Amino acid sequence: xxxxxxxxxxxxxxxxxxxxxxxxxxxxxxxxxxxxxxxxxxxxxxxxxxxxxxxxxxxxxxxxxxxxxxxxxxxxxxxxxxxxxxxxxxxxxxxxxxxxxxxxxxxxxxxxxxxxxxxxxxxxxxxxxxxxxxxxxxxxxxxxxxxxxxxxxxxxxxxxxxxxxxxxxxxxxxxxxxxxxxxxxxxxxxxxxxxxxxxxxxxxxxxxxxxxxxxxxxxxxxxxxxxxxxxxxxxxxxxxxxxxxxxxxxxxxxxxxxxxxxxxxxxxxxxxxxxxxxxxxxxxxxxxxxxxxxxxxxxxxxxxxxxxxxxxxxxxxxxxxxxxxxxxxxxxxxxxxxxxxxxxxxxxxxxxxxxxxxxxxxxxxxxxxxxxxxxxxxxxxxxxxxxxxxxxxxxxxxxxxxxxxxxxxxxxxxxxxxxxxxxxxxxxxxxxxxxxxxxxxxxxxxxxxxxxxxxxxxxxxxxxxxxxxxxxxxxxx
Length: 477
Known about the structure:
The chain is of the alpha/beta class and 477 residues long. It contains 15 helices and 20 strands. It has 2 domains: 3-118 and 138-250, Aldehyde Dehydrogenase, Chain A, domain 1; 254-443, Aldehyde Dehydrogenase, Chain A, domain 2 (3-Layer(aba) Sandwich). Helix 3 runs antiparallel to helix 5 (95-115) and helix 3 packs antiparallel against helix 6. One of its GO terms (cellular component) is cytosol.
C-alpha cells in the first residue's frame, strides 16, 4: 500500500495540475494531488445527463440494481487499504480510523443493495366493494448531494447508495478539502457497472455557486446536505422556490450524561470513542460532558488519565493515535474556544499532551468546572476538547441537555433501567445512545431534529427518503 497505488484509484481526467483544487495533507501541508474543478455550466450539464440516465436505470428490475450495488461494495472491500490511505492523506485522520470508515461506508452500499429489493408498496383495505386502493413507491428523480470533509467517504455512500437503490440519479459536490475519496468512489462505482452519467462527482471551488445551482435547477428534485446549520437554512430557503425535497444533517451539541450509578470505566471508554474520534471532528461526538456531582471528580480524574495516553501524530506514522485537525483555521478556532473558556473560569485538568509543532495539530484538552454560561458549553467545538459540567439530579441533567437549538445525538450512562427509559424519552434528540459512545450503523436511522435537520440515512427509512409514495385507485371491479 503506497500513496501511488491509492492515487491510482483516481482517473486521469479527474486530476488537474494547473487549475485544480490543491488537496493538502493537514499533517504536514504536503500536496497530495490536484483535483479537477467543475464550473456551474459543467455541473448543469451533468445534471441534465443524469436526468436522462435515471430513466433507463429506474426501469431496471430491483434485482439488477441490487447486483450492481453489490459489485460496487465488493470493489470497495477489495480496495479498502488504498481507500483508507487516500482518506488519511487528504483528511489527516489516523489510518485505523480511516480503515473503519471504509468498512462503515461500504456497509451502506451492502445494506442498500439488499434494500433495493424491498421497496414495498401497499394494498389498503378498500372503502368500496368495486374499488381497490394501493400505493406504489417510485424514485424521487435526479438528486444532488453536498458532503463534508470530516467523513469524506461514508457521507457519500450514505447518500448515493440509497439514491441508486431507489432508481434515482445523483450528482455529488464533495468538500473542497477532501475530494479524492469521492473521486475514488466514483471510479469504483463505474467499474462496478453504475452508468457514468447516473452518478457523478463534481468538485468545485465555489461551493455557494454549485449550491445555488442545485437549489434552482428544475431537474434536481431532491438535495441531501450534511454540514452547518447556517448553510442548511440557506439551502432550505433557496430550495423552497421549487419545493424540492430535502434531507439535512446539520450541526449538533451532543450531551454526554453520566449519572452517579454509571459504570465509570464504560463511560470513559465511551467518552474517548465519542469525543476524540477523528480529533473531535464529528457531528455526533460528545460536545458537553454532564456529570452528576457524586462522581464528578472521579470521572474527571479517569478522563484525564485516559487522555494522557493519547498520541498525537501523523495518521500514517501512528495509525491508532489522534491525527490533525483539517486545517490551521480549525486549530485557531478550537484554541480560541479553550482560551475563552479558561478566561471565563474553566480549569484545564491534567498535563498538556504533546503534539507535533508542524501541521494542523491541536492536543486533546479536558476542561473542568465548566458552566452553562460559558460559550464553549453552547457551541459545536469540532475539536479534541472535553468540557465537563456538573449537575445535581435527573431533572437538571435533562434541562441542561435540552437547552440548545440542536437535536442530533445524545448519550446517557446509567445502570438504572427506569432512568434509561425516562432519559431516552425525555431527551430532545434524533438519536440517543445508552451506555455506549458509538451509535451509528447502517441498520438504524441516522438523523436529527430541531435545528439539527430532518430526514434519515441508513435503515429502511434511508431508502424511503429517496422515494415518492403514489396512491392509486382502481375502480370498476
